[in-house]
């Protein structure tokens, strides 16, 4: 009986040992690195001054992921990072353990973690984080955003082991600045001048002034024979106030009422003007 008991104890111990060994092997196989990380963006052509975002995605494979540490590098001459926001890849209560952005060195250090005691983990692909960035006013035919050697993925099976299998970096082209369209002003039409006809001036004949002599001035007609209604020249006679009646050499037509063919018969009354 004693020998049989010893044999049974040895057999049970061997069975338990084999079971534990297989369980340990299964755990180690499940904890083998199979998680991949990648970066994507909605456009790979970035214009200087343009804002854009970069998504960091995880595919866990066979791993039960509870934490991700991102070590990302970029060229600060062509990319400027303003923020990193948490994605939905990790379930439950997620802590952002560290978020450091250095636009001088061109680095991002971002760590998110789930407490292993909660027994919550990620097994389906999802968004780990989103990088908010913009392009400074410099162009480059090609620039890359890459995962550094500090990038790690922790699993529930073996929290101390990095289960990251591979990474996919992002290549961008920073083009020339998009020109700002300048509106061409619409020319203003110059109005055609309207010509107004200038009325032709109407000339009014100025009447010849009639010379009116004072009543006390008398013109004396020479005694030579003059035919009535004739035109002749006479010499001015000065009136009693010393003023010439009319200028010498002025032609005047005599009226027949005062003169005849033999001359003016009454010089004192002749042609008072």
Automatic annotation (TrEMBL):
User: Residue ranges under compositional bias (Low complexity)?
Assistant: 191-208
Instruction: State one Pfam family annotation.
Output: Cohesin
The GO molecular function terms of this record are:
carbohydrate binding
| Compositional bias (Pro residues) | 178-190
Query: Boundaries of each Cohesin domain copy?
Result: 39-155
- In residue numbers, the region (Disordered) covers 174-208
GO biological process annotation, one example = polysaccharide catabolic process
Could you tell me which InterPro entries the record lists for this protein? CBM2/CBM3_carb-bd_dom_sf (IPR008965), Cohesin_dom (IPR002102)
What is the name listed in the Swiss-Prot or TrEMBL entry for this protein? Cohesin domain-containing protein
Q: Which organism is it from?
A: Candidatus Woesebacteria bacterium GW2011_GWA1_37_8
